[in-house]
Amino acid sequence: MNTTVIGVDTGGTFTDFIYHSGGRWVVHKTLSTPDDPSRAVLEGLESIAPEFLTHRVESRFAGPPGEAFNRVKVVHGSTVATNAVLERKGVKTAIITNAGFEDVIEIGRQNRDQLYNLFYRRPQTVVPAHLRFGVPARMDASGKEVRPLDLEALSSIKIRLKELQVQSVAVCFLFSYLNPEHEQAVYRELADLQIPFSLSHCILPEFREFERLSTTVVNAYVAPKMSGYLQRIQDRLHPGPLRIMQSNGGSISAAQAMQEPVRTILSGPAGGVVGALETAKRAGFEKIITLDMGGTSTDVCLINKGLPLSTETCLSGFPLKVPMLDIHTVGAGGGSISRLDAGGALKVGPESAGSGPGPICYGRGKEITVTDAHLFLGRLQSDRFLGGGMLLDRKRLDAAFEELSGRAGIGPMDLAQGILAVADTNMERAIRVISVEKGFDPREFTLVSFGGAGGLHCAELARMLSIPRVLVPANPGVLSAMGMVLADVIKDYSRTVMLEHGKNSGGRLQELFVPLEEQARADMLKEGFEQTAVSLQKSLDMRYLGQSFEIMVPWRPGEDPGAGFEELHRQKYGYIHQGRDMEVVSLRLRAAGTPAKPALQTPAPGDEQISDKAFYAQTQVYFEGGFVSAPVLDRNELLPGNGFAGPAVITEYTSTVFVPPFARARVDSWGNIVLDILDATDKAA
Length: 685
Description:
- The chain is α+β, with helices and mostly antiparallel strands.
- The chain is built from 18 helices and 34 strands.
- Helix 10 crosses helix 15 (479-486), helix 11 packs across helix 13 (412-434) and helix 12 packs across helix 13.
């Protein structure tokens, strides 16, 4: 019996769905419901696969209850944890730590994000002082107990937690990554409170107490929210499996996501990166820069032949040291609102109109967005949005553009073009952060564009950065959901060891990895993978002795990790310390299992002749100060081998691609649209 895998990605404006049925991919988009994101998820599932929801089994599926559920698996990328932190809408959370260290979460480190801003204030912590409790207890730096846990003090804290109606607790003691006994004792004594506890030695068994505490606090802060959200979905799918996309590019069970929601902070964007990598590989590109532009934000990621992992992510002032894909986000999306600041300058984002009220052209919005500017300039077709399923109101835009352009002192068309230029500049800056600022030349990469709005900006961004080509996959508006369907099951493990690197350190490293490997194999067996079906990837956090921060170095037994470390150090910093001693700070193990996945589209033979069916209409597009005539093409009717020069507008259900006059489009054998940027090619030459 075949299993249907449904990918679901919740965004700020749309919730996307994709699944494989009857030999073809089925896609669907519905407006998100920010007040309760699970509602949009269930409404979408109701629309595309109602037989898999509990209340429809008997009426829509001919068979005993439960048989339909065995044929479906949902892999979901969620923004619930992210939004709870950004909007400070988590639950009432308390901290229990060593006496005297209650304020570590507020003191943090001395780094200033905005060095020259005299009015800068750190984001407020989510745990106020009266909810931070210290218990007399201490382990030393070797993990030896030097002061027992004060159970009497802990009993008093228990009473206060009840009185304050605390909903979640983060427990983080010094050196618990070496000896977790005190954290475990706290849980045993307080477990009958019947509230979630996040223990730092379970969430992040690594050194650096502030980062460990910060990661644990975020987990505790969002855990009840995430649990309630996932439970509402799980109740309707039960007993069908629900898996959640992690920030590291793999999926985990819903049960683990409820316990460790901090691992899902970049859940949706991670799915897009995985989908982009798989698509680009098949098209023959290994070095890519991803551009995921949705309704609220744009996520960019540089991939140099493999998924880039980072343990230095910071969300709204909270360092998060769990492994995540190295994704950079800016507040530029189709719903980004355009305004004039106090000095009369045009500003675009980061505020978004979202799905409610949405852009003006959706019928309810009152402030101009990037989507409105595209429609005003003729780059969006009002009757082709979502395949014609959602009609955009072009007439509502005239008064709004007249009013704002009058205040700006420019013409309405120039205002709309200026809005796009500002959004492009914000995204260009983001791409430079992940490429130029890290020693990579964008001209050596291919820009992979997806998300509902990516196709409208990708060519201009490629020209600005001298990137020679753009790849736009099929169904780009739901590529993040596609990535979730294609993602492996991945679990990450870590352990701080502080081992000096030397000639005989290889054997010791292998010994230290053994407990992590045993735990990984046991956990993956629970996920349904035999040992032979699990791949283990080892890496080491290394640094020169005396340095404050580490570099993650891939490692295989028998290899000298020092050589790999210095190669990465030279790439990142431009130099190495010849002959200087090194140390291995932490071990990292990544366990991956590949589940059954639906077959992707197979290559098709080429055909240079474009079918007459592909030409939908002729339109006028405003471009660089004047109108140009452009054909409107139906992507579903374009065949591999088709090629044409811009300008052109290519429409499909999930997205629109604008091909400007400086680009030439072609369809490859996989159905991807490849844009060759003529200006960028000239510059590179």
